Amino acid sequence: FGLLGHLVEMVRASRVAVELDFSALPWIPGATSTLQQGIYSSLHTQNQRASDWIDNWLQIWDQPLLPILFDPQTAGGLLVALPADQAADCLFALRAAGYHESCQIGQVQAAVPDKQPIVIQLS
Q: What does pTM read for this prediction?
């Protein structure tokens, strides 16, 4: 699924919306250069169907690094949703346990009728 596919599964099941901070995403070494070379996973086209869930897709679709959201190789990380007041403690514990790349990449919001549940902020 890639990160976005897993996020779609979470928002569908929970009936919530999410604002994803693209600039906060940690990058796997080599991901940027691979994309710049035009190398995509064989599942990229299939996984890109998840873009239907992005409310602001027409405003961001041409961003050169956006395809990383659909790369199934980025799904190895842990995607967690928890109450905002627990985020700092959770990140502290993860980093103390050696997961130094742990970070907050977005926030959960109430779903809005007639609006797709994912918004991606580029900066």
A: 0.90
